[in-house]
Design brief:
Number of domains: 1
Oligomer: single chain
Mean pLDDT: 88
Shape: globular
Radius of gyration: 19 Å
Helix content: 25-40%
């Protein structure tokens, strides 16, 4: 994995000048933000879904909170509705379907929609989708744009569904699963380091890298080892977590202690996994 160079024609900017979380995208993308994070909220989401969060505040148990959230999503976005007599079943885009397809292939069309949501809400450009995204006029970038705008997924307010998922994730981390914490130590295994740009070598095993705008991590290094020989270890700030394994009762990513993490520039430890003796 070579260090970034202007001659490589990478998209030099981390993202758009505007976003929906109220801080400059350059700051949000920086390693400084990751080390000293502040809470983030997607503009208008909690206000638009006030009833959900008012009811959540009265819940005493993480299981009950997850059930309340999934019931709310099913009702508000019609995810469990059945067609009436003589009506055709209409495909409704669902956050659960996106998570399922991401689990199969992060470079699928569903993966592009999730990366597009991060781009829209947090302002961060993806750096990889099927191939490194070097230039805006490249074939790889055009493929990403076509897939992120796929009409198959862009119905049923899919971006709003993801907004509510993110806000619920942040609420649940603070309330139940990471109370009083600002970071979680997470791991990522990789055999293809083209997805991550090496910005600076900081030491023998330390580096500053630019992660794709949405990436999978796990809380278990043994699981990370199953996905690649190179293990990336990072202190991930809570505001950059979209989803984690214990958030929901029913979801398709169980079994891998998976976290979906919003990217940017991270100071990380990089090593090869070794079985303990």
């Amino acid at each position: 994995m070579a260090a970034y160079s202007e001659t490589d024609n990478y998209i030099a900017m981390p993202g758009h000048s505007t976003n929906l979380v109220g801080i400059p995208t350059g700051l949000l993308a920086s390693a400084a933000f990751n080390e000293f994070p502040i809470p983030l909220h997607i503009s208008g989401t909690r206000e638009a879904h006030r009833n959900l969060f008012e009811h959540l505040d009265s819940v005493k148990d993480a299981t009950d909170a997850a059930q309340l959230f999934q019931d709310y999503m099913a009702v508000v976005f019609g995810l469990a509705s059945e067609p009436g007599p003589g009506e055709k079943r209409r495909y409704r885009a669902s956050y659960l379907r996106l998570l399922k397809d991401w689990g199969f292939d992060a470079n699928s069309a569903a993966g592009a929609v999730l990366k597009g949501w991060v781009e829209s809400r947090f302002g961060l450009f993806p750096s990889f989708h099927k191939a490194p995204l070097y230039r805006f006029n490249s074939h790889a970038w055009m493929t990403y744009v076509e897939e992120k705008m796929s009409s198959r997924f862009h119905n049923n307010s899919i971006h709003m569904q993801l907004d509510v998922l993110y806000e619920f994730c942040q609420w649940a981390l603070a309330r139940f699963h990471a109370t009083g914490k600002k970071h979680l130590r997470l791991f990522r295994g990789s055999n293809d380091l083209r997805e991550h740009q090496l910005l600076q070598q900081l030491g023998n095993r330390q580096a500053l890298i630019r992660l794709n705008n949405l990436v999978s991590f796990t809380s278990q290094p043994e699981i990370a080892d199953e996905f690649g020989d190179t293990i990336i270890e990072a202190e991930v700030p809570l505001p950059k977590i979209l989803f984690y394994n214990d958030l929901l009762l029913r979801h398709p990513l169980r079994g891998e202690a998976e976290f979906l993490v919003i990217g940017g520039d991270y100071r990380v430890q990089m090593s090869y996994w070794r079985e303990p003796v």
